[in-house]
Amino acid sequence: MEDQKLREKLDEGYIYCSVILEVAGKPKEHVVETMRLLISQIKEIKDIKLYKGDLFKPKQHEEVWSTFAELELLVKDASILLHFCFEYAPSSVEIIGPQNLNLKNQKFAAFLNDLVTRMHNIGNELKELKADNNALTKNATALFQNIMILTLRDKERPLSGISKNTGIPENQLKPFIDLMVKNKFLKQKRELYCLNK
After folding, report:
1. CA 56, 61, 63: angle at the middle one, nearest 5?
2. Which of the listed CATH numbers 3.30.70.60, 3.40.1350.10, 3.40.1280.10, 3.40.50.720 matches domain 3-119?
3. pLDDT at residue 1 in the model
4. pTM for the complete prediction?
5. Is the peptide bond before 90 cis (omega within 30 degrees of 0)?
6. By three-state DSSP, how is residue 155 classified?
7. Angle, helix 105-152 to helix 159-166, in steps of 10 degrees
8. First to last CA, the chain
């Protein structure tokens, strides 16, 4: 698409913008395929035209791979751009043209209502996750206490002995043991631990 066609689209009310999309995960092939899928989906959106696009090679950060794409888009209007941002969550959006945007009240209200509904749904999901997490924490605590009862019911043991019995590395076990001593579930006698009967 040459500059004349670009100007024509801007005159029709289209918005010319640059967006950056990022994908992270593993394995590397999955990250690349996901990004390609996202770009394919964007190309299929009726009111968005892909003007230019650059897909960058994935890079590894510790165990995770990440890649990003910089896309220049022509978007039919501001409400479509808002929905695009909400659906694809670009890490950056730059509006290149025009200088002023027009957004009709009804379209903006519809977008805001959609936004509010999604925020409520996210809030409800977070509440459910918090409740699930609390239940898991409570059950894990009870399970760990039972393991300590079984491990220490016959004799006092050092941290290394508890670690060997439970299969939990000492460095991961120590904070839980310290908390159980603080909460008086366990007693510490020098280097040995026992149940606080």
Report:
1. 120
2. 3.30.70.60
3. 46
4. 0.58
5. no
6. coil
7. 110
8. 80
